[in-house]
Design a protein that fits this description.
Blueprint lengths: L1 H17 L3 H23 L17 H5 L18 E2 L5 E2 L12 H9 L13 E3 L3 E7 L7 H11 L5 E4 L9 H6 L10 E4 L3 H5 L3 H10 L9 E4 L3 E5 L19 H11 L5 E6 L12 H10 L5 E4 L5 E4 L6 E5 L18 E4 L16 E8 L2 E8 L4 E3 L3
Parallel strand pairs: 3-7, 4-5, 5-6, 8-9, 9-10, 10-12
Antiparallel strand pairs: 1-2, 4-14, 7-8, 11-12, 11-13, 14-15, 15-16
């Protein structure tokens, strides 16, 4: 593992040396990594700790990679050093693949540093596509692992063909072109087409990999990371909540940017029908409280949307009606996760997955899956299916 860390260190040092104000950026980077390191150590050294809000775990091994300012021994990198535990938000704290201390998340840090000043240009020609009044969608988030769980979810989606498929973002580890072409290769296309959203992981690569595959894999998007679909009753808005997010906050919180905000106001001007929003970042906190992104979208639309589907959190959560809206977290497309105890007893939460996936590789894992949405006139019918193609929500 140290061989990989050494390679990443050389890439980071080279990138910072070439960047303008390289020394200042390295000092800022080290300051943030030291803070992250202290937060991570406080959690892993406390066997009773199950909460770690706000830590960007993808960068947890950052000081080990840079071998600079390291406070104590390197963090664990094996299951023997740190047995997996389920955090209260359902994330798996451990060192196995895709868990919070998976050492290979270091690629996200490397790409982020290399692309602090180098990202794909913002395209301002989004599609505005007419769709049938009766139409179906399969929606999954955070699917791009290329691993066996993603393949199970894709098979389940293929078993229920849809007119359009929509990915809510995140191709791992860092959305580079090879990730987009390999880990996303098995994505099931809809009969009429497919769409994909930008995300924090795509932004670690400056969204170069993401924009690089739009023309070949997602031609309906016209090379643009946001879009609108419409029929007589529904306006569906796919948003890029990552591109304008704060890079020094690691693109973790969603933002719209001035241009996309203006587009939202333009495309919804005079619209009297129903609105569905799709994004990578969440419109609610995990427990169901409105956040800054929700307020920004509501302000741009002049009202809350009727439905909003997002990913980013690797859970599936159906929220009670709030603000005139039904919010859904559909981030359980592929990353293994456990039951989120933090949701227990929360009045805003109508349902979240707690059923074991019976997975020998991840015994703590609950079921992954996707959402199917069917529009027929003004009516919307949604069903959440698991990786085995079984209905999970609405429950009987």
């Amino acid at each position: 593992m140290m061989g990989i860390f050494d390679t990443w260190k050389n890439r980071i040092d080279s990138s910072l040396a070439e960047a303008e104000q390289g020394l200042q950026q390295k000092q800022e980077l080290l300051s943030r990594l030291k803070l992250i390191d202290a937060q991570v150590r406080a959690v892993i050294n406390d066997p009773d700790a199950t909460s770690a809000p706000g830590i960007p775990w993808e960068f947890a091994h950052g000081l080990s990679i840079l071998s600079s300012g390291l406070n104590g021994e390197p963090l664990p990198t094996t299951e023997a050093q740190l047995p997996t535990r389920v955090m209260d938000d359902g994330t798996l704290l451990g060192c196995r693949k895709w868990e919070l201390l998976d050492p290979l998340w270091g690629e996200a840090l490397t790409q982020w540093v290399e692309h602090l000043e180098n990202r794909a240009p913002w395209n301002t020609q989004p599609c505005h596509l007419a769709i049938p009044d009766k139409v179906s969608f399969n929606i999954a988030g955070d699917w791009g692992t290329g691993d066996y769980i993603a393949h199970k979810v894709a098979t389940a989606m293929t078993g229920r063909p849809a007119d359009y498929t929509i990915h809510l973002g995140d191709v791992y580890y860092a959305g580079v072109g090879s990730d987009e072409n390999q880990d996303f290769a098995g994505w099931p296309a809809g009969a009429r087409g497919q769409f994909t959203l930008n995300s924090n992981h795509e932004m670690y690569n400056g969204a170069l990999g993401y924009f690089g595959v739009l023309s070949s894999r997602f031609p309906l998007q016209q090379g643009t990371s946001y879009f609108s679909l419409f029929n007589a009753n529904w306006l569906i808005l796919g948003l890029d909540t990552a591109y304008w997010s704060d890079k020094w906050n690691l693109y973790m919180d969603g933002a719209l940017g001035d241009g996309q905000t203006a587009w939202l106001r333009e495309v919804t001007a005079g619209w009297k029908g129903k609105i569905m929003v799709l994004s990578h970042h969440q419109g609610y906190s995990m427990e169901g409280e409105s956040n800054a992104l929700f307020l920004a979208v509501k302000d741009a639309l002049g009202r809350a949307p009727d439905y909003w589907y997002w990913g980013h959190l690797h859970n599936v959560i159906c929220y009670q009606p709030q603000n005139g809206m039904l919010g859904r977290c559909i981030g359980h497309g592929a990353i293994p996760y456990g039951a989120a105890s933090i949701l227990d007893g929360k009045p805003q939460v109508a349902w979240a997955e707690t059923k074991s996936a019976d997975d020998r590789q991840y015994p703590e894992r609950v079921l992954n899956g996707f959402a199917r949405v069917e529009l027929n006139g003004e009516a919307l019918v949604e069903v959440l299916y698991d990786e085995n193609g079984e209905k999970r929500w609405p429950q009987p």
